[in-house]
């Protein structure tokens, strides 16, 4: 009888095993995504997209059980989309994820450029990045700029503080009298009323402009200046500290994002936050390193005193209020954005020589 019972038990156990092994394992869903950028990965905002954001997405999906997997195609350095055309490429579905340089797409993201109309701000990259991120959450018009361009914002990046790289020493703003300074876009406002003349240009032209006499110096950030060896033609590194400037952020095509499973959406959002945090940390460290390297290569640092920074800031026209009025006339809440930005910097402890919202 015991033998019969054992046989029955073994038979039941075998049936359970068969039933369980007969259920097929759930197939992993592979989702194809293309990440693109106009800049090459030598620039930290693209490198961080490739080395932080993408791995963070993959890691989170794997930790959630591996039900979904992203098959990534990487296209950087203008191989798929050109600089200044990233948002259009994503909106049109040419790429899915990428870095949007809002400083080069000001007509589409006008309010995101508020930092350029509030110079002498914070040199803390994280503070500036977080200030813009918070404003985008609180002020619908800022966040809507991404939605209107068919995108979902995931994480941001701000450049290290801008300084003056010049052929000549500068101890006060009057030393700029009669000089020509590469100051592209809104940063041309930073030399108004100083006696200097702003000259259009970018990182690709600064070296030759200064070398050939087209300009006598340039307003730019340390990591960018080092990349073009600017200290060779403009050895005086005048630390004016115009402040860190918001440059743009990574985004994803909204149509694709909305169709992604919630688990994948969550991974993208969390990876975007990791991108913002890691970029700010890495860019801060790199800026300090590049400044030291430029000094070793012959650069001469001149620290502008707080008193001189205030004199310079006070000499400028009311940049922020002028910008705010122009944007308000177009129906955009720029005054609210500017006030919110200045308040965010103050709350973070930044010592501001001038409040551009007043």
Number of distinct helices: 12
Helix content: 40-55%
pLDDT average, as an integer? 92
Secondary-structure content class? alpha/beta
Total domains, how many?
1
Computed CA radius of gyration, to the nearest angstrom: 26 Å
Elements, N to C (H/E): HEHEHEHHEEEHEHEHHEHHH
End-to-end Cα distance, whole Å, is 96 Å
What's the CATH class label? Alpha Beta
Poorly predicted runs of 5 or more residues: 1-6, 8-25
CATH architecture: 3-Layer(aba) Sandwich
CATH-defined superfamily: Bacterial extracellular solute-binding protein, family 7
Shape summary: globular
Largest beta sheet, briefly? 9 strands, mixed
Number of strands: 9
CATH topology: D-Maltodextrin-Binding Protein, domain 2
Strand content: 15-25%
Describe the overall structure.
This protein is of the alpha/beta class and 358 residues long. It has a single domain (27-347), classed as 3-Layer(aba) Sandwich (D-Maltodextrin-Binding Protein, domain 2), CATH 3.40.190.170. The protein has helices at 2-22, 44-63, 86-91, 125-138, 140-148, 206-212, 222-227, 254-259, 262-296, 306-315, 319-329, 334-347, and strands spanning 29-36, 68-75, 97-100, 151-166, 180-182, 197-199, 217-221, 236-253, 300-303. Strands 1, 2, 3, 4, 5, 6, 7, 8 and 9 form a 9-stranded mixed sheet that branches. Strand 1 (29-36), helix 2 (44-63) and strand 2 form a beta-alpha-beta unit. Helix 4 packs across helix 12 (334-347).
